[in-house]
Each structure stands twice: as C-alpha cells, then as structure tokens.
Specification:
The structure is a homodimer of 353-residue chains. Chain A is α/β, with parallel strands linked by helices and 353 residues long. In chain A, helix 2 packs across helix 3 and helix 5 packs across helix 13. Chain A is elongated. About 4% of the residues of chain A have low confidence. Strand 2 of chain A pairs antiparallel with strand 2 of chain B. Chain B binds a DNA duplex (16 and 16 nucleotides) through helix 2 and helix 4.
DNA sequence: CTGTTAGCGCCTTCAA
DNA sequence: TTGAAGGCGCTAACAG
C-alpha cells in the first residue's frame, strides 16, 4: 500500500541503508549531528525522492527493529473529569515534546477493567505506562513493573508497592484548607466524601484531622462523611449532615465533584434564585475549576497543579525509560520515589469579599 | 527481553505456526471458531506454555505482518475541555469494544500544530483518524484521505472536502434555543461568541438568525458579537454589549466557555453575593455541564449528546476501515456522509422555576 | 561515505 | 492437524 524505504532507495539510486541514515536522524551514532554520516549531495537526493513519493515511515517496522514503540500507555479511571483531563493535557504535551505518543484508555473506575486494560496495553508493547489507579490494589501494576515495564503512578499512590508516583501534597493541602476555616472562627467542621481505598482521599482526611487536632477540636463522628467521589455522593452526604440537630457550620469537600453535589443539595433545598439568600453553611473545596466562583457556599479552594502533575509524570516516565535503556542489566533498583506537588489555598474570585 | 512465539513453541514442543494459530483467534480463516484448526490437546499445551512463560504478544511484529495497527489517532484542538472529553469518552469506549486503541493528541487550537501532529500520527501508521478540526482549513485532511487514510471529522465539518463527519444539528439547536427566548417574550436577543472559521459556530449563528427572521425581527448589528470560543471572549463581549445605550435583554451563547465568561462578567459587575439580585439579562447557552444550574443568568440550555457523538464517530471510523479492507481496489468513493445528532433544549434544573 | 546483509517477532501459504 | 520457510519494512553491524 504505502511506499517503503526500498522505493525511496530505488528512486534516489542509493541503498536502503543510506535512506535510513538520512531519515533516522539523531539515532544511529551521532546524535542529531546535521552533517552526520551522509554526504550533502546524497542526502538531498534522498530527501527529494522521499518528498516525491510521499513516503511515510512504517512505525511498526521501526518499532519491531528498535524494540521501542515511542508510545506511553495512559490509564485513567475515567476521562470525562476536569481534573484528569488537565493531567492528560500536561502529559500529552510533555510526551509529544519528547517524540512520544499517548495511548489513552479508561478503567471505568473498576479494578477488573483496569486489569484487563493494563494487560491489553502491555500487549501493545508500549515503552511505559502512566496510571491513575482505580483503587488501592496494586499487584497487577507491581508485577508488570517487576517484569520490566516502566510504570509511574499519578495522583494516587498505592501502598505496599515500590512504584514511583507523582501526586499532590494532599495532606498539607487539606490541613491548610481546614486551618483557613478555623481561623475564620468555624469550629464545627465536617469532612465530606472520599473513597477510603484511594490514597488521595485518605491523605486529605488526615490533613483535616490534623488541623482539628492542632486546634484542640475533637470532631464529632457524624461530621466525617466518608464514601464516594462523585456528585451524587456529595449530594447525599449534605442531606444527611443538615438533618443533624446541631449540624456543622463548615465543611471540607474531598474533591470537585463532591463539592458540586453538596452545592446542588443546597440549591435544591433553598435555591438562591428563590430566597436570594446566601447559604447557611460554608464549604472549603479541594480542586478548582472555572465554575468555582459560581458555587454560592464556596469559601476556600485548594488548587492542585493538574497540568504540572501531568507534565511531571511525563518527564518521570521518560526518565525511567531512559534509565532502563542505559543501565539495562545493572539491577539498580532505586527505592520508591514519590514526587509531591504543592497545593495552594485561595478564595474563589468573587469580586466582592 | 520479552518472550516470543518461538519460546512458547519450544516449551510446548510445537512449531511457531501452531502457536500463532492458537493465539490469533478469529483471524486466519475460520472466524472465532472455537474448534478452529488445532487439536484440543495441542491447544492446551500451547496455552499452558503461554501462561508459564508469561508470554505477551509483540504488537509491532503483528502490525508489521498484518499491515494494521488496531490503533486510531484522535486529534482534538485541546484536551481540557468538558465537551471534548465527553466525546473522547464515547470514542474510547467504542474503540475498545472493537479491539482498537486510541492515540490521543492535541493540536493546541493551531492549524500549524495540527498539520504537524497529523503527519506524526499518520507516520505511526494508525488504521484511521478521528479529528475535531482546529479551523476551516482541510487540505491536509483531504490529502491524507486521498492517499487512503480513513478519516472522520467530529463536531466540526470542513467545507470543500468530501470527508465524513459526525456532528450535532447545530442550526436546529440554536434555532430552538432562540425560539425559546422569543416565546418568553424577549425581542432584543444577542448572539455571543463564535469563530467564523468553525462550522459549528457558523451553523449556530445561522439558527439564531433564522429564528429571529421567523419572528420578523431584524437584529441590530451590535447584537451579533462574533469572535472567540473561550471564557475571556464571553467576558469581553458581555462587557461591550452592556455598554450599549439600549442593550439586549437576552443572549445566546455560542458554547459553554463563552457562556461561562458572560456569567463571570455579570458576577464581577453586580455579583449576586453582594446585591442578592438576579441578573438583569437572560442567557440561553449551548452545551450543558453539571455547573449550568449554578449560572445565575442561565435560562435555557441546548444539550448535545457528546458521548453519543464520540461513540458514533468511533463506529463510523471502524466501518470505514472495514470497507477499505473489503473493497480494496473498488474505488467505491461514496460521497461525503454527514451524520447529525439531535440537540435538545431544556431549562437548567433549578428546583424553583 | 555507502552498500550488503541479517534479522526484529509474527503470520500464512504450501507441503506433509 | 501440523511444520517449514519466506517476508512484512526498517535498522545496525560489518565491509568496502
């Protein structure tokens, strides 16, 4: 179907080896040395023949030969998620800059699906994998990693593995978020949402707990509403919380969707469009979006650098791939490396305070 | 590094051909026929050898041989975009179900970048491409298509090409959106945002114009605020609109981001948190999200089935790939096929009207 | 500086 | 039902 190296070689009147030398720059021997190992004259001949034929390299053939596909598999629990897509944007940009492509797939928030996809992706012989784990199970990642597949975990770490991770400083972030509420005088502060199987949720919970402890506050059990990371979870939790005799006056939302659900509940109960009144509780939410200024109860926001996280993860996986290529046999198993990005606290940008 | 067919064959005491026959089901000859062409006994031997060695197929080798990578390149103008990500979700699901993988890349809203990426992706020998064009330029797609690369355009069509497209019925959608405002009694209705280079924007504009014409209304030139598809564009346009002596009392927003920007402007000018008053203008916006109920000025929403669009596009590109494989030489160039998905109008779900 | 050659791992006729 | 063998398109020694 497509033209091959041989066609180009024929037209240019040289050998396929020469064509390859022209078209695989910075690879064999001299790195990107413009005057590599081919005379300017033949180089030109080859280039124009390439042009004339509209030649396109066959990636499969190159991959087979080089034992490297220049592709990174990226596995997310879901795609339609503001935070994840910012991460994806960062990853893609970084990978592309280094000549890699991103094979993106969704685990549908299911460990079973995750295992299937990871196997499929491993079968595609990608050079490495970037994954946001769907749960706290990590054996499938660990064993793939043990077999030599470079893997970097993103956003969520998995305990009991020695896998590299790039994530945010969730604990510190929620600590500061909670402290902001405390210094505004709130004392009855709830924590809403969070799958206990996810490291990010656990870390956020513990930052919250530490802030309360620092302030000498013993949280009532009913304030801690674990379970769920989605809109409907926030909605339900908010409903239950407000039914208490003596409900909290402030809340920390584990993430953006839960936050959204909580606000939805308030909207449904005493919609501001009807009563024109500000909500009676205040929310400090983890994760920002263009919409947070419109969430009436939102007082503080903890922002992660999602794009930065993606690009950091991209850098790291490429590093690992290169290390592997260089060291090769030296089983220089460095221990687990966890990169934590800072989280910043701010008010949503109402013009008026 | 990895185990090969040969390793498996050796361990199982059979030839590589036999192993291949076991592990490439539904391919050579009999489609998925459980009792294909290998005895149950040898089949078992092969399977257990495969297991024992932890054999993983080398995708590059298979691709080289089969001349098919089972990968679809997907090129979006940007990734961090609610609408696009829903589309991506639909695409990925559909592709995965058919055994394809998604190579996702961003054109950064730039035609130049788009050309680069498209070339890179074509070089990867993907089996087909799904793209949301960054502009009204389509030569690079057309020529790739002419060379035999199956391509389906998504969300935006490009005139002057004969490329298949899957998109929404934008014209009808905005027509109905505008009619909803008209039947509420609004007469001074503006249209805000929209790159004239994008078919979706043009179609939405024309639906708006048709609705006004139907109602016998001649729009004032100042009501039509073209330019831009992003938050900041909506913000700026809203500022200008409200400076008119006799400003519009209702507006149609070309998309979600522009809508968001318009609301932001209102928030900054007379934030509801301060005045507790409903905004003085009403917006009908194209595209929905979980946040639209929180946008104070939002009266109507036109919702596209973004996930459905993705899955439809996925189906279509796979169809085209199969057609190509079957017809092969028969140059049965069907003419351009445009699939249009319906757009539904609704009110954002305030509990109170 | 350039050509020859031998595979990378898999699939698929063609024979047996 | 199975094996032997050639080749998909590219690259990297090794010669020249």
């Amino acid at each position: 179907m497509g033209k091959t190296l041989k066609d180009v070689a024929l037209l240019a009147g040289v050998s396929t080896a020469t064509v390859s030398r022209v078209l695989a720059p910075g690879y064999s021997g001299a790195f990107n040395k413009a005057s590599s190992t081919v005379s300017e004259k033949t180089r030109m001949k080859v280039l124009s023949a390439t042009e004339e034929l509209g030649y396109r390299m066959n990636h499969a053939a190159r991959s087979l030969k080089r034992q490297s596909t220049m592709m990174i598999a990226v596995l997310f629990p879901e795609l339609a998620n503001d935070f994840f897509m910012d991460v994806a944007e960062g990853i893609e940009k970084e990978l592309y800059a280094e000549g890699y492509s991103m094979l993106l797939s969704s685990s549908l928030n299911s460990v079973e699906e995750e295992k299937k996809r990871i196997n499929m992706l491993a079968g595609r012989t990608v050079d490495g994998m970037l994954v946001i784990p769907a749960s706290s199970q990590g054996n499938h990642f660990q064993s793939l990693s043990d077999r030599g597949m470079p893997i970097v975990l993103v956003d969520r770490i998995v305990e009991g593995t020695n896998l590299d991770s790039v994530t945010s400083d969730n604990e510190e972030g929620t600590f500061n978020l909670t402290k902001a509420l405390l210094s505004d005088g709130f004392r009855r502060i709830a924590f809403v949402g969070g799958e206990i199987t996810l490291s990010s949720a656990r870390e956020r919970l513990s930052g919250y707990a530490r802030a309360l402890a620092d302030a000498g506050i013993e949280p009532e059990p009913s304030w801690i509403c674990l379970g769920g990371m989605k809109t409907e979870d926030g909605y339900k939790h908010m409903g239950k919380l407000l039914k208490n005799k003596n409900p909290p006056d402030a809340m920390v939302a584990v993430n953006l969707l839960v936050h959204l659900g909580m606000e939805r509940y308030l909207l449904d109960m005493n919609g501001f469009s009807e009563t024109n009144s500000k909500p009676s509780v205040v929310i400090a939410g983890f994760d920002e979006s263009g919409y947070t200024p419109f969430l009436p109860a939102c007082r503080y926001i903890a922002s992660q650098d999602a794009v930065g996280m993606g690009s950091r993860a991209g850098k790291r996986i490429i590093e690992k791939i290169r290390e592997k290529k260089n060291h090769k046999d030296e089983s220089k198993k460095d221990s687990e490396l966890i990169i934590r990005l800072p989280v910043t606290i701010s008010r949503p940008v109402y013009k008026t305070a």
